Amino acid sequence: MTDRQPGASRRQLLGLGAAAAALPFMPHVARAQASGRLVVSTWGGDYARLLGSNIDQPLLAPKNIEVTQDVGTEPARVAKLIAQRRLPRGNVDIICAQAPQSYDLNEAGLLEPLDEGKVPNMKYVLPELRTNYALPHIFSPQIFIYNTERVQQPPTAFADLMADRYKGKVGLLDNSFIYIVMAAALAKTGDASNFAAAKPDLEKLVRDGNKTYTVTDAFAPALRSGEIDVGPVWQARTIFWQKAGVSVQSSFPKEGSIVYVSSMSVPKNAPNKTAAFAYLNAMLEPSAQRGFADSMGYLPTSSQATLEGEVAQRLALPEPKPKLVAPDYAKLAAARDDLNDWWRRLLDGR
Amino acid sequence: MSRPSKRRTTGLTAGLLIGPATFLVMGALVTPLLLLARYSLNRYDRTNFMVEALTPENYLRFFYDPFYTGVLWTTLWIALVTTVLCLVLGFPIAYRLARSQSRWKSVGVLLVILPLFIGSTVRALGWMGVLGRGGLVDSTVAALSPGSSFPLLYTPFAVVVGILSINLPYMVLTLQSVIEGIDARVEEAADSLGADPSRRFWHVVLPLALPGLATGGVLVFILAMNAYATPLLLGGARFQMMAPMLFREYAVNNNWPFAAAIAFILMVTTLTLTAASSAFVQRRYKAA
Question: What's one GO BP annotation on this UniProt entry (chain A) (predicted)?
Answer without folding.
Answer: thiamine transport
